Amino acid sequence: MSTYAVGDIQGCYKALKKLLKKVDFSPDKDKLWCVGDLVNRGSNSLETLRFLRDIDDSVSIVLGNHDLHFLAINEGCAPERTKDTLSKLLKSEDCDKLCDWLRKKPLVHLDCIDTKNGLEDFLMVHAGVAPTWSIKKTLKLAAEVELALQGKDYRKFLKNMYGDHPNRWHDKLQDQSRLRTITNYLTRVRFCDELGNLKLDIKGGLCSTPKGFKPWYEYEKISNKAMILFGHWAAIEGKTGKSRVHALDTGYVWGRELTLMRLEDYQRYSISK
């Protein structure tokens, strides 16, 4: 049995199937971890969700910003954007069922894997974490958002999750501002400062680093306890310079590669556009 973690799929269903075939993936014996952004930008979001739902027992998923955006559109909580490629999915007869399935997925996944170096904890998140968050706190805060998303009043969260403020985590944050800030770290962060102030409007690579800011993984306090897996940031091309922080979004939807990593031995496999 092998455990594979795949980068942002973003509706590129055919590429996903091709990559899984390359490693001889079988849902009967293997596990697939998905770092979020399952949908949007690519042309086959519907097929992607149906496939992952059908092998649900063999898949661990964390939600990304595009997944949350899709849920918000379907619930009438946000408009479609010009660059969205979700029309086919939104018009499908099973869209509501797929949304119900997706809405129950977490924002953070933690598990222990028997690697070539012994037992190792892996924490998977779509974008990143705040500088002050421990594993325990990350899971606790993610659970607050998951509770809101899975509860009866989930549309209230979906309507209020958009926005860049507050731009820094504080334990005294409350209600929707608190949930929005947690969500922004887990699904949108790229750059922050040592205090955790977010710079969400910069989406380029390291050459675009704003003065006074660094990639979030330069400040995190988790990787000494667990390997971190994340996606979201295609512009860094899967490179962090850190042996215990693994970037898996290598920009297939932008004409580059779709990548997965076998967690047991950290081996990467990719296919090109």
What does this protein look like?
The protein is α/β, with parallel strands linked by helices and 273 residues long. The chain has a single domain (3-272), classed as Purple Acid Phosphatase, chain A, domain 2 (4-Layer Sandwich), CATH 3.60.21. 29% of the residues lie in helices and 19% in strands. The chain has 8 helices and 12 strands. The chain has helices spanning 13-22, 45-54, 65-74, 87-91, 95-103, 135-150, 154-160, 175-187; strands spanning 3-6, 31-34, 59-61, 108-115, 118-125, 191-192, 198-199, 214-215, 227-230, 245-247, 257-262, 267-272. A 5-stranded mixed sheet has the order 3-2-1-11-12, covered by helices on one side. A 4-stranded mixed sheet has the order 4-5-9-10, with helices on one face. Helix 2 (45-54) crosses helix 5. The radius of gyration is 17 Å and the shape is globular.
